[in-house]
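Many introductory courses stop at the sequence. We go one step further.
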Amino acid sequence: MSSLDQVHAAAADVDQQETQEWIDALEAVLDREGAERAHYLIERLIDLARRSGAHIPYSLNTAYVNTIPPGLEPPHPGNMVLEERIRSYIRWNAMAMVVKANKVEPADGGSLGGHIASFASLATMIECGQNHFWHAESPDHGGDLVYFQGHSSPGMYSRAFLEGRLTEENLNYFRQEVGGKGKGLSSYPHPKLMPGFWQFSTVSMGLGPMMAIYQARFLKYLHARGLADTAQRKVWVFVGDGEIDEPETLAAIGLASREKLDNLIFVVNCNLQRLDGPVRGNGKIIQELEGAFRGNGWNVLKLIWGGYWDPLFARDKEGILRRVMEETVDGEYQAYKANDGKFVREKFFGKHPKLLEMVSRMSDEDVWRLNRGGHDPHKVYAAFAAAAGHKGQPSVILAKTIKGYGMGQVGQAKNPTHQQKKLDVDSVREFRDRFNIPIPDDKLEEIPFFKPAEDSPEMKYLHEHRKALGGYLPHRRQKADQSLPVPPLDAFKAVLEPTAEGREISTTQAFVRVLNQILRDKDLAPRVVPILVDESRTFGMEGLFRQIGIYAPEGQKYVPVDKGQVMYYREAENGQLLQEGINEAGGFSSWIAAATSYSVSNCIMIPFFIYYSMFGFQRFGDHAWAAGDMLARG
């Protein structure tokens, strides 16, 4: 707040002494009893005011700063020097893979394509997860599920190369799945093309986040029904801020909070850019998303500023820095990181004379070094730890990053960065110097891959941390350890043979009878997952309500209005039927979760998705394609 603003605020305060007493009281509560007690008291005061008829405006937004203050950040448990080196090697190989692929013109005269910038903005967060959070499947853990942001696939291939799971030859066949003679790497996460590697298909924008929500719910469903122990498992979802505009991305976030999916963590990569330009040039995507997720009952963690900003915040006694940050729009923030420290000093800090004074003793290089939260490993770890430990709600981390981080003047934060796939030798040299890669000048033209010696500290560290977390990710189970018996054809004799009266029955009737017959099979019945989108009565299937129950994580808190009827509406914590409401896309997402359970949870399920064909299919056609890519079975 400027001096003039403070004067106006003081003028509006009719009793400054009383105001100060309230502030002192709140500070005392915070100091002695903590934030939870302070929050409770504030909520009681607001509730009392509203009950008394006062209009108290409600805002879903908090200040444009990190949710976790520096004093509450846990210590980072890793070796920061080694992690930075590993991260740099992975960045280099990811860049080299794309650039090398586009040095050779394919037969059609076009280019192989690929993306450098997306992983460049994500690398710090991906590596934090790989080193400290994401469990692979092991005897002690069912394995965490990670929906990687599709355009970041080069980074995952680069890490797998260091791990010894992919060879240099594999990297040389990036985006050449067909011509690569079985050694090629798919453009994006694609289980059908790489069945032992990728778990989920995520590049059809918006489908990954939606499918992940229903996957997290299905893990809870398996646990509630006693079919698999999924209590420790988490579902991590990396989403681009541009991807948020796809309707499916946010379509199911209400379900996630309603069912208290605390095994679900979204990480929104807010690099402020989509393909053509800024995501919200005239606004703030992080503030917009905070309102959307918080309003839907999520635990929201904002990861905006890196640690180099902390001393400036500590000196911002008048709140001028925070106010300018609030007023600055994303189009401006993008421009700052597309230029240099001198530009940032003039255009950002130059917005107020006291801000210019604040950085007067800092060089342009120091100003340029002021980092964003998604690139600060300490703050990334703090946000990941807070999200992983949160109970009772799904969590979302809104992480501010730079598109094309480290790509220099040719690509960093520039509008065409998403499509950037070719770099000249000077840009490659700048990238090498920026990340201190031991490649000599005379080799830069060929952009060789780099892998440290197996006995190097970096490689030992990389393998030790993945071993401690159960193995390597991504990795896909191709076949379940179990099998289910096939019922004899005679079991369906009543359906197959004509009735005594010679009367024909509809296909719907036949299907319902077949389903009921399977539900009588003691081996198969527990694995059947009927999924209905509010059409049970249409198809004469309401008898299943009482027979197997509708899955509801909190059971049934009310007496159903039709309790006195034979086929009353019965919800149960261990219910078997998934009732999705009028929601074909959500129902099919549940079907995908069940149909891939053989791979994801080593638990074979038999899902049936029942929908009204008149208007159903066109609402999940893209999901059906994704199901094929993920080798779904059901």
